[in-house]
Amino acid sequence: MSFDVNQLFDVNQLFAEICEEDNLFAFEGTITSEEINTILENVEARMAELQIDLKHRKKIYNITVECIQNLYHHSDMVPEPLVEKLGKNYGQFVLRRPGNGYFITVGNFVLNEKIKFLSEKIDKLNSLSSDELKEMYKFILNYQKLSSKGGGGLGLIDIVRKSEHKLMYRFYPYNDDYCFYRLDIVI
Amino acid sequence: MDTLSIEGTAKTPTVRFDASKGLIELKGRSIPENSIEFYKPLVEWLESYAKEAKSQSTVNIQLEYFNTSSSKCILDIFKRLEAIHKNGSEVAINWFYDEDDEDMLEAGQDYESIIRVPFRMMEVAAG
Predict the structure, then answer these.
(1) CATH topology of domain B4-124
(2) Which CATH topology does A11-186 take?
(3) Yes or no, beta carbons of A152 and B104 under 8 Å apart
(4) Burial class (CB in 10 A: 0-12, 13-18, 19+), B72
(5) Distance (Å) from the C-alpha of residue B126 to the closest C-alpha of chain A?
């Protein structure tokens, strides 16, 4: 992943661009516990309306839960100049259907110092076979303690396993401290 | 000991733990943001039940969805049941999944490979 330093990053413009493409449901804003309920209800209603088959419905719902709760736990990193405009827990979530597949795109600000950790983590998951992912999932499930936030380090592994595709990611530079982390999941 | 009954919500499952019948059931959705708080009384109930467990306990797990935060708590429940099983009481775990929901079947198989208690995979016809 490389930065396009010539392009000034605008978070609302990025959201608008993502939404342009075959969007089925889109959310941007502050992620609260109540907002999680609303997003899940809306995604479920939209899938019922579109009569999406049970297999995809379950995968989309499960991945939505993990993505939205991940945003809830980790989206508290909005750069100071944007807090007034975006709020303190800003995240983006878009469900799209370009062609025959489904795409979930999520985004939130992260500290630049997290880029290396996140990139390495995703690259590692992308390099594993389904059997290796299963073994890694079971190992962490069995031996790693839950964090105080209730997360167990299993979210991304679960997303990769259910998606059955490689994860795609990008970091859009914002300033010296922050960037915007975008994750695309194919279902 | 008292039966533990909790009504399900959009994010938490229906719980029915009945010591007199040796019946332990979880049904619905388990997707709370923080599952530790929800599962604490369930684990505590099982700790008490372990002291007076029926000779045979039936465990029915029928979850439509569960998040990764719940997955560790569910394993914790299974570990308590494994301890009861080790102490000589019979424990049978029925893991229900919708046909076409291979992810839920696989989740049951993941638990089955970690926990030394007999699992039965129960396919439910899509309604």
Answers:
(1) Transcription Regulator spoIIAA (3.30.750)
(2) Heat Shock Protein 90 (3.30.565)
(3) no
(4) buried
(5) 9
Structure-model confidence comparison of residues A25 and A150, the more confident one = A25
**Judging by beta carbons within 10 Å of its beta carbon (0-12, 13-18, 19+), is residue A129 exposed, middle or buried?**
exposed
Alpha-carbon distance B38 to nearest alpha carbon in chain A (angstroms): 11
pLDDT in tens, A66-97: 999 999 988 778 888 888 888 888 999 999 99
The per-residue pLDDT for range A1-55, each reduced to its tens digit, is 444 444 568 999 999 999 987 889 999 999 999 999 999 999 999 999 999 999 9
Residues of B in contact with A154 (CB under 8 A): 68, 71-72
**Cα–chain center distance at A121:** 14
Q: Using the beta-carbon criterion (under 8 Å), do B32 and A58 form an inter-chain contact?
A: no
Q: Closest to A154 (Cβ–Cβ): which among B71, B100, B101?
A: B71
Tell me, what's the pLDDT at A87? 86
Q: What does the angle CA A83 – CA A15 – CA A85 come to, to the nearest 5 degrees? A: 20
Closest CA to B38 of A35, A89, A146: A146
Q: What is the mean pLDDT of residues A91-108?
A: 94
Closest by Cβ to B72, choosing from A36, A54, A141:
A141
Q: How buried is A35 (Cβ within 10 angstroms: 0-12 exposed, 13-18 middle, 19+ buried)? A: middle
Q: Is the CB of B68 less than 8 angstroms away from the CB of A151?
A: yes
pLDDT digits (tens, 9 = 90+) for A53-66: 999 999 999 999 99
Q: Is A6 on the interface with B (CB under 8 A)?
A: no
Domain edges within chain B? 4-124
